[in-house]
Write a sequence for this structure.
């Protein structure tokens, strides 16, 4: 009877086991995709800010240029 009880325990506990395995796999996949998405967002946002700073620095240089009449 102990053998049959172990068989039923495996069937009953399969849902919990699959839930745990699915959670771990999903967490790992989500973490790696989140890192990649974060890098992509950071690259695009950094490029945008760098472009804005470049435009501002060019305006500052133009204002300091003695050949430009004010």
């Amino acid at each position: 009877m102990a053998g049959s009880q172990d068989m039923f325990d495996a069937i009953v506990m399969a849902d919990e086991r699959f839930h745990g395995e699915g959670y771990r796999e999903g967490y790992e996949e989500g973490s790696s995709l989140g890192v990649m998405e974060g890098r992509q967002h950071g690259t695009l946002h950094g490029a945008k800010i760098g472009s804005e700073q470049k435009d501002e620095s060019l305006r500052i240089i133009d204002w300091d240029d003695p050949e430009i009449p004010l």
